[in-house]
Design goal:
This protein is of the alpha/beta class. A 6-stranded parallel sheet has the order 3-2-1-5-4-6. The chain is elongated and about 65 Å long. It is built from 9 helices and 6 strands, in the order βαβαβαβαβαβαααα. It folds into 2 domains: 152 residues, Alpha/beta knot (3-Layer(aba) Sandwich), CATH 3.40.1280; 60 residues, Helicase, Ruva Protein, domain 3.
Length: 246
């Protein structure tokens, strides 16, 4: 599966962490990012479940999701079907070509805690949401099982004849765009100020599915500045990475 990575947020069970390491090694994933993990990669029970995978997978530990995600241009979150009916989601088969064509070396697959899953703030940071299609009456998979299903499906989609595409914008560029959009769309009255994330998270998914580039980010931020100017407001000041704080 080339060099895609896993990000596990608040994993709590040694068996799941060890099994995740084993799945990563099975499919050539060389890096596992741990965010506020309750178990250590070197714990005996973790190593027992890993079955030697610890020698093939680099595990790094982080205090925040932002730090763990900094090296990746595309974040694909796994979420269960509970309470996600209004979120734009894709299944693993749909996600596979979308992620492969962007270059798996910049992709991280994100999984949440075994009990609570991913928090809303972390989920909103992700570009795609992947849902494994289970029966509606029992949609929650074990963490290690979910990782295995998603990784295996994407691995099968990692063909060598995918057309070359432009690299998607980096995470910090996307975050800058989302902050700028929030400010601009509030300025023109498009967003509900009591619940701006309702629309913004859908726009984030749209950008994630499209895999927008750095140049496209700059175009959209230029549109933001023009909206603010047309509304008679002083343009918001954001560092957009090209020396123009607008």
């Amino acid at each position: 599966m080339n060099a895609a990575a896993l990000i596990l947020v608040k994993p709590a069970h040694a068996g799941n962490l060890g099994a995740a390491m084993r799945v990563a090694a099975n499919f050539g994933i060389g890096r596992l990012e741990l965010v506020r993990s309750s178990v250590r990669p070197g714990d005996p029970e973790v190593l027992n479940w890993a079955c030697g995978a610890e020698r093939r997978v680099e595990c790094r530990e982080w205090d925040s999701f932002t730090e763990a995600a900094a090296d990746y241009h595309t974040l694909a979150a796994s979420a269960s079907g509970r309470g996600r009916q209004n979120l734009p989601v894709v299944d693993p088969r749909q996600a596979a070509p979308m992620l492969v064509e962007r270059g798996l070396d910049g992709v991280a697959l994100v999984f949440g805690n075994e009990t609570s899953g991913l928090g809303r703030e972390d989920l909103d940071r992700c570009d795609l949401v992947i849902r494994v299609p289970t029966i509606p009456d029992y949609p929650v998979l074990n963490l290690a099982q979910a990782i295995a299903v998603v990784v295996a499906t994407i691995s099968m989609g990692a063909t060598t004849d995918m057309p070359a595409t432009l690299e998607p914008a980096a995470q910090d560029e996307i975050e800058g765009l989302m902050s700028h959009l929030r400010c601009s769309l509030l300025t023109i009255g498009f967003l509900d100020p009591t619940s701006p994330q309702r629309i913004l998270r859908k726009m984030r998914r749209l950008f994630g599915r499209a895999g927008i580039t750095s140049n496209e980010v700059k175009i959209l931020r230029g549109m933001c500045r023009q909206m603010e100017w047309a509304a008679g407001a002083k343009p918001a000041r954001f560092d957009d990475g090209d020396g123009d704080d607008g």
